Amino acid sequence: MAQSLNTEMSKKVDRLAPLRAAVQAFTALADAKADEATFLAEGREILADLIADGSWLEDDFRQTHPQFYQQYLLYCDPHQRFSIQSFVWGPGQATPVHDHTVWGLVGVLQGAERCERFKQTSQGFVSDGGPVLLERGQVDAVSPTVGDIHKVSNAFEDRTSISIHVYGANIGSTPRHVFDVGTGLVKDFVSGYSSSRLPNIWDQTAMVRAQLAQAAR
Question: Which of 72, 169, 205, 207 has the most CB within a 10 Å radius?
Answer without folding.
Answer: 72
